[in-house]
Amino acid sequence: MANPDNPNNSFEVQCPATDSFSSLCWHPRQNYLVATSWDNQVRCWEVMATGQAVPKSATSHDAPPLCSQFHADGNSVFTAGCDKQAKRWDLATNQATQVAAHDAPIRHLSWINELNMLVTGSWDKTLRYWDLRQQSPAHTQTLPDKCYALSVSHPLLVVGTAERYIQVFNLAKPDQVYKQLQSPLKHQTRCIAAFPDKQTTGYLVGSIEGRVAVQHVDDHLASKNFTFKCHREEGGQDIYAVNSMCFHPTQGTFVTTGADGTFNFWDKENKQRLKAMSKCKAPIPCAAFNHDGTILSYALSYDWHKGAAAHNPAAAINKIFLHAVQDSEVKQRKKTR
Protein backbone atom coordinates (compact mmCIF):
# COMPACT_ATOMS: atom_id res chain seq x y z
CA MET A 1 0.00 0.00 0.00
CA ALA A 2 1.32 3.42 -0.94
CA ASN A 3 2.63 5.72 1.76
CA PRO A 4 0.31 8.78 1.70
CA ASP A 5 3.30 11.03 2.52
CA ASN A 6 5.24 9.58 -0.43
CA PRO A 7 2.65 8.12 -2.83
CA ASN A 8 5.13 7.66 -5.70
CA ASN A 9 7.63 5.73 -3.56
CA SER A 10 10.39 8.25 -4.31
CA PHE A 11 13.65 8.73 -2.39
CA GLU A 12 13.40 11.61 0.08
CA VAL A 13 16.21 14.15 0.36
CA GLN A 14 16.81 15.05 3.98
CA CYS A 15 16.61 18.84 4.05
CA PRO A 16 16.15 21.29 6.93
CA ALA A 17 14.42 23.96 4.80
CA THR A 18 11.92 25.98 6.82
CA ASP A 19 10.11 27.56 3.86
CA SER A 20 8.99 26.77 0.32
CA PHE A 21 11.37 25.70 -2.44
CA SER A 22 11.83 28.01 -5.42
CA SER A 23 14.17 26.09 -7.76
CA LEU A 24 16.12 22.87 -8.34
CA CYS A 25 19.10 22.29 -10.63
CA TRP A 26 21.63 19.54 -11.34
CA HIS A 27 25.33 19.40 -12.15
CA PRO A 28 25.77 19.02 -15.96
CA ARG A 29 27.65 15.69 -15.69
CA GLN A 30 27.46 14.38 -12.12
CA ASN A 31 24.73 13.75 -9.58
CA TYR A 32 25.00 16.92 -7.53
CA LEU A 33 21.67 18.58 -6.77
CA VAL A 34 21.13 22.21 -5.71
CA ALA A 35 17.93 23.65 -4.21
CA THR A 36 16.96 27.24 -3.41
CA SER A 37 14.28 28.07 -0.87
CA TRP A 38 12.39 31.01 0.60
CA ASP A 39 14.33 30.76 3.89
CA ASN A 40 17.19 32.49 1.95
CA GLN A 41 19.17 29.26 1.68
CA VAL A 42 20.97 27.49 -1.18
CA ARG A 43 21.87 23.85 -0.48
CA CYS A 44 23.84 21.20 -2.37
CA TRP A 45 23.75 17.39 -2.08
CA GLU A 46 25.56 14.54 -3.74
CA VAL A 47 23.12 11.83 -4.79
CA MET A 48 24.51 8.32 -4.44
CA ALA A 49 23.66 5.30 -6.58
CA THR A 50 21.53 4.04 -3.68
CA GLY A 51 19.31 7.12 -3.93
CA GLN A 52 20.68 8.60 -0.72
CA ALA A 53 21.39 12.35 -0.90
CA VAL A 54 24.43 13.43 1.15
CA PRO A 55 24.63 17.13 2.15
CA LYS A 56 27.77 18.73 0.69
CA SER A 57 27.59 22.49 1.28
CA ALA A 58 25.29 25.49 1.66
CA THR A 59 25.26 29.24 1.18
CA SER A 60 22.68 32.00 1.51
CA HIS A 61 21.27 35.24 0.10
CA ASP A 62 20.09 38.31 2.00
CA ALA A 63 16.57 37.67 0.67
CA PRO A 64 14.88 34.61 -0.85
CA PRO A 65 16.67 33.18 -3.93
CA LEU A 66 14.27 32.35 -6.77
CA CYS A 67 16.42 30.61 -9.39
CA SER A 68 19.58 28.58 -9.88
CA GLN A 69 21.72 26.95 -12.57
CA PHE A 70 25.11 25.29 -12.71
CA HIS A 71 27.89 26.77 -14.80
CA ALA A 72 28.71 24.47 -17.72
CA ASP A 73 32.01 23.49 -16.07
CA GLY A 74 30.13 22.16 -13.03
CA ASN A 75 32.42 23.95 -10.58
CA SER A 76 30.03 26.72 -9.61
CA VAL A 77 26.34 27.54 -9.33
CA PHE A 78 24.55 30.77 -10.26
CA THR A 79 21.73 31.85 -7.95
CA ALA A 80 19.58 35.00 -7.87
CA GLY A 81 16.42 36.33 -6.33
CA CYS A 82 14.73 38.91 -4.15
CA ASP A 83 17.94 40.66 -3.07
CA LYS A 84 18.19 41.92 -6.70
CA GLN A 85 21.56 40.29 -7.30
CA ALA A 86 22.96 37.16 -8.88
CA LYS A 87 25.81 35.29 -7.24
CA ARG A 88 28.32 32.74 -8.44
CA TRP A 89 28.85 30.10 -5.76
CA ASP A 90 32.18 28.27 -6.05
CA LEU A 91 31.56 24.78 -4.66
CA ALA A 92 35.26 24.05 -4.04
CA THR A 93 35.90 27.14 -1.90
CA ASN A 94 32.28 27.63 -0.72
CA GLN A 95 32.66 31.33 -1.62
CA ALA A 96 29.78 33.22 -3.26
CA THR A 97 30.50 36.42 -5.19
CA GLN A 98 28.07 38.86 -6.79
CA VAL A 99 28.15 38.78 -10.60
CA ALA A 100 24.97 40.66 -11.60
CA ALA A 101 22.45 43.19 -10.30
CA HIS A 102 19.01 44.55 -11.18
CA ASP A 103 16.68 47.25 -9.90
CA ALA A 104 14.11 44.68 -8.72
CA PRO A 105 14.13 40.95 -7.85
CA ILE A 106 15.69 38.59 -10.40
CA ARG A 107 13.13 35.93 -11.31
CA HIS A 108 15.19 33.77 -13.71
CA LEU A 109 18.71 33.27 -14.98
CA SER A 110 20.53 31.05 -17.45
CA TRP A 111 24.18 30.41 -18.23
CA ILE A 112 24.70 30.54 -22.03
CA ASN A 113 27.91 28.62 -22.58
CA GLU A 114 28.04 29.35 -26.31
CA LEU A 115 28.24 33.09 -25.52
CA ASN A 116 30.20 32.64 -22.28
CA MET A 117 27.58 34.87 -20.65
CA LEU A 118 24.97 34.84 -17.93
CA VAL A 119 21.50 36.19 -18.75
CA THR A 120 19.21 37.40 -15.97
CA GLY A 121 15.51 38.30 -16.18
CA SER A 122 13.98 40.61 -13.62
CA TRP A 123 10.79 42.22 -12.39
CA ASP A 124 12.46 45.51 -13.37
CA LYS A 125 11.32 44.64 -16.92
CA THR A 126 14.75 43.94 -18.35
CA LEU A 127 16.94 41.08 -19.52
CA ARG A 128 20.61 41.67 -18.80
CA TYR A 129 23.56 39.81 -20.32
CA TRP A 130 26.71 39.56 -18.20
CA ASP A 131 30.31 38.92 -19.20
CA LEU A 132 31.64 37.80 -15.81
CA ARG A 133 34.91 39.66 -16.40
CA GLN A 134 33.03 42.97 -16.29
CA GLN A 135 30.92 44.64 -13.62
CA SER A 136 28.42 46.25 -15.99
CA PRO A 137 26.04 44.29 -18.20
CA ALA A 138 27.23 43.63 -21.75
CA HIS A 139 23.69 44.31 -22.95
CA THR A 140 20.38 45.35 -21.36
CA GLN A 141 17.22 44.38 -23.22
CA THR A 142 14.00 46.16 -22.24
CA LEU A 143 11.03 43.81 -21.90
CA PRO A 144 7.32 44.61 -22.35
CA ASP A 145 6.71 43.87 -18.65
CA LYS A 146 8.04 41.96 -15.63
CA CYS A 147 9.92 38.73 -16.41
CA TYR A 148 7.88 35.73 -15.24
CA ALA A 149 9.49 32.90 -17.25
CA LEU A 150 12.70 32.31 -19.19
CA SER A 151 14.21 29.40 -21.08
CA VAL A 152 17.34 29.05 -23.22
CA SER A 153 18.27 26.35 -25.75
CA HIS A 154 20.97 28.02 -27.82
CA PRO A 155 20.44 29.74 -30.21
CA LEU A 156 16.87 30.15 -28.90
CA LEU A 157 15.92 32.31 -25.91
CA VAL A 158 12.27 32.69 -24.94
CA VAL A 159 11.00 35.02 -22.21
CA GLY A 160 7.47 35.33 -20.85
CA THR A 161 6.34 38.46 -19.04
CA ALA A 162 3.33 39.87 -17.24
CA GLU A 163 0.30 40.61 -19.43
CA ARG A 164 1.01 37.36 -21.33
CA TYR A 165 3.71 38.79 -23.61
CA ILE A 166 6.23 36.36 -25.10
CA GLN A 167 9.45 37.48 -26.76
CA VAL A 168 11.62 35.14 -28.84
CA PHE A 169 15.31 35.90 -29.43
CA ASN A 170 17.93 34.42 -31.75
CA LEU A 171 21.05 34.63 -29.60
CA ALA A 172 23.14 35.41 -32.67
CA LYS A 173 21.49 38.84 -32.29
CA PRO A 174 20.46 39.13 -28.62
CA ASP A 175 19.72 42.86 -28.97
CA GLN A 176 16.96 42.26 -31.53
CA VAL A 177 13.53 40.77 -30.80
CA TYR A 178 13.08 37.96 -33.34
CA LYS A 179 9.37 37.61 -32.63
CA GLN A 180 6.89 39.06 -30.12
CA LEU A 181 3.43 37.67 -29.46
CA GLN A 182 0.87 37.25 -26.75
CA SER A 183 0.60 33.82 -25.23
CA PRO A 184 -1.93 31.56 -26.97
CA LEU A 185 -3.15 30.78 -23.44
CA LYS A 186 -5.75 33.12 -21.96
CA HIS A 187 -4.25 33.34 -18.48
CA GLN A 188 -0.98 34.41 -16.86
CA THR A 189 2.21 32.69 -17.99
CA ARG A 190 3.84 30.64 -15.22
CA CYS A 191 6.64 28.78 -17.03
CA ILE A 192 8.35 28.31 -20.41
CA ALA A 193 10.58 25.49 -21.69
CA ALA A 194 12.51 25.77 -24.98
CA PHE A 195 12.68 22.62 -27.13
CA PRO A 196 16.09 20.96 -26.72
CA ASP A 197 15.90 19.80 -30.36
CA LYS A 198 18.11 22.05 -32.53
CA GLN A 199 16.32 21.04 -35.74
CA THR A 200 12.85 22.17 -34.64
CA THR A 201 12.80 25.55 -32.91
CA GLY A 202 9.97 25.91 -30.44
CA TYR A 203 8.91 26.09 -26.84
CA LEU A 204 6.27 25.14 -24.30
CA VAL A 205 4.19 27.70 -22.39
CA GLY A 206 2.48 26.78 -19.11
CA SER A 207 -0.18 28.94 -17.49
CA ILE A 208 -1.89 29.34 -14.12
CA GLU A 209 -5.02 27.81 -15.67
CA GLY A 210 -3.90 24.18 -16.03
CA ARG A 211 -2.99 24.38 -19.67
CA VAL A 212 0.14 24.01 -21.84
CA ALA A 213 0.77 25.42 -25.32
CA VAL A 214 3.21 23.77 -27.73
CA GLN A 215 4.56 26.55 -29.97
CA HIS A 216 6.87 26.52 -33.01
CA VAL A 217 8.89 29.62 -33.86
CA ASP A 218 8.81 29.24 -37.64
CA ASP A 219 5.53 30.34 -39.23
CA HIS A 220 5.49 27.42 -41.68
CA LEU A 221 5.20 25.07 -38.68
CA ALA A 222 2.26 26.95 -37.12
CA SER A 223 -0.09 24.10 -38.07
CA LYS A 224 1.78 21.93 -35.54
CA ASN A 225 0.97 24.29 -32.65
CA PHE A 226 -1.56 23.01 -30.14
CA THR A 227 -2.65 23.37 -26.53
CA PHE A 228 -3.74 20.79 -23.99
CA LYS A 229 -5.29 20.74 -20.54
CA CYS A 230 -3.52 19.32 -17.49
CA HIS A 231 -3.32 19.58 -13.70
CA ARG A 232 -7.08 19.55 -13.27
CA GLU A 233 -9.27 17.44 -11.04
CA GLU A 234 -11.56 14.89 -12.67
CA GLY A 235 -14.63 16.68 -13.92
CA GLY A 236 -12.65 19.86 -14.49
CA GLN A 237 -14.05 21.75 -11.52
CA ASP A 238 -10.71 22.45 -9.85
CA ILE A 239 -8.02 23.91 -12.11
CA TYR A 240 -4.42 24.36 -10.98
CA ALA A 241 -1.33 26.22 -12.16
CA VAL A 242 1.35 24.50 -14.21
CA ASN A 243 4.30 25.42 -12.00
CA SER A 244 7.22 24.01 -13.97
CA MET A 245 8.11 22.11 -17.14
CA CYS A 246 11.38 20.48 -18.17
CA PHE A 247 12.47 18.33 -21.07
CA HIS A 248 14.10 14.93 -20.65
CA PRO A 249 17.76 15.36 -21.71
CA THR A 250 17.70 12.59 -24.34
CA GLN A 251 14.14 11.55 -25.18
CA GLY A 252 12.52 14.84 -26.25
CA THR A 253 9.58 14.18 -23.92
CA PHE A 254 8.86 16.40 -20.93
CA VAL A 255 7.42 16.58 -17.44
CA THR A 256 4.99 19.11 -15.97
CA THR A 257 4.45 19.78 -12.27
CA GLY A 258 1.44 21.47 -10.79
CA ALA A 259 -0.18 23.21 -7.88
CA ASP A 260 -2.39 20.11 -7.62
CA GLY A 261 0.57 18.11 -6.27
CA THR A 262 1.04 15.91 -9.35
CA PHE A 263 3.70 15.47 -12.01
CA ASN A 264 2.98 14.07 -15.45
CA PHE A 265 5.15 12.89 -18.34
CA TRP A 266 4.18 13.96 -21.88
CA ASP A 267 5.04 13.18 -25.51
CA LYS A 268 4.33 16.27 -27.65
CA GLU A 269 5.15 14.50 -30.93
CA ASN A 270 2.39 11.95 -30.45
CA LYS A 271 0.18 14.29 -28.39
CA GLN A 272 -0.25 12.03 -25.41
CA ARG A 273 0.41 11.69 -21.71
CA LEU A 274 2.91 8.92 -21.06
CA LYS A 275 2.38 8.62 -17.31
CA ALA A 276 0.36 10.35 -14.60
CA MET A 277 1.94 10.07 -11.16
CA SER A 278 0.06 9.85 -7.89
CA LYS A 279 -1.08 13.05 -6.23
CA CYS A 280 1.13 14.34 -3.40
CA LYS A 281 0.06 16.19 -0.27
CA ALA A 282 1.38 19.59 -1.38
CA PRO A 283 1.93 21.56 -4.59
CA ILE A 284 5.06 20.86 -6.66
CA PRO A 285 6.67 24.25 -7.37
CA CYS A 286 9.70 22.95 -9.28
CA ALA A 287 11.38 19.88 -10.74
CA ALA A 288 14.51 19.01 -12.72
CA PHE A 289 16.02 16.01 -14.51
CA ASN A 290 19.61 15.03 -13.75
CA HIS A 291 22.19 15.02 -16.57
CA ASP A 292 21.24 11.64 -18.07
CA GLY A 293 17.53 11.71 -17.25
CA THR A 294 17.58 8.75 -14.88
CA ILE A 295 16.46 10.88 -11.89
CA LEU A 296 13.73 13.49 -11.61
CA SER A 297 14.02 15.71 -8.56
CA TYR A 298 10.83 17.42 -7.42
CA ALA A 299 9.95 19.61 -4.46
CA LEU A 300 6.79 19.64 -2.36
CA SER A 301 5.90 22.94 -0.72
CA TYR A 302 3.27 25.64 -0.70
CA ASP A 303 3.40 27.69 -3.91
CA TRP A 304 1.20 30.58 -2.71
CA HIS A 305 -1.43 29.99 -5.38
CA LYS A 306 -4.11 30.67 -2.77
CA GLY A 307 -2.26 33.52 -1.07
CA ALA A 308 -1.25 33.98 2.56
CA ALA A 309 -4.66 32.98 3.92
CA ALA A 310 -4.12 29.36 2.86
CA HIS A 311 -0.62 29.12 4.35
CA ASN A 312 -0.29 27.39 7.70
CA PRO A 313 3.40 27.41 8.71
CA ALA A 314 2.81 24.85 11.46
CA ALA A 315 1.47 22.28 8.97
CA ALA A 316 3.65 23.26 6.00
CA ILE A 317 5.35 20.53 3.98
CA ASN A 318 8.82 21.35 2.61
CA LYS A 319 10.35 18.26 1.05
CA ILE A 320 12.46 17.21 -1.92
CA PHE A 321 12.03 13.79 -3.54
CA LEU A 322 14.02 11.87 -6.17
CA HIS A 323 12.04 9.79 -8.65
CA ALA A 324 13.81 6.92 -10.45
CA VAL A 325 12.73 7.53 -14.05
CA GLN A 326 11.46 4.51 -15.99
CA ASP A 327 11.80 4.16 -19.77
CA SER A 328 8.05 3.70 -20.11
CA GLU A 329 7.53 7.17 -18.58
CA VAL A 330 9.76 9.09 -20.97
CA LYS A 331 10.17 7.16 -24.23
CA GLN A 332 8.03 8.31 -27.14
CA ARG A 333 5.47 5.81 -28.33
CA LYS A 334 3.00 5.79 -31.14
CA LYS A 335 -0.63 6.09 -30.22
CA THR A 336 -2.52 2.81 -30.39
CA ARG A 337 -5.85 3.08 -32.11
UniProtKB/TrEMBL annotation:
Q: Which UniProt keywords apply?
A: Repeat, WD repeat
Q: Name one Pfam family in it.
A: WD40
Tell me where the WD repeats sit in this chain. Answer: 58-99, 99-140, 242-276
The organism's place on the tree of life at top rank = Eukaryota
What SMART domains does its record include?
A: WD40
Q: What name has this protein been given in UniProt?
A: mRNA export factor
The species this protein was found in: Pyramimonas obovata
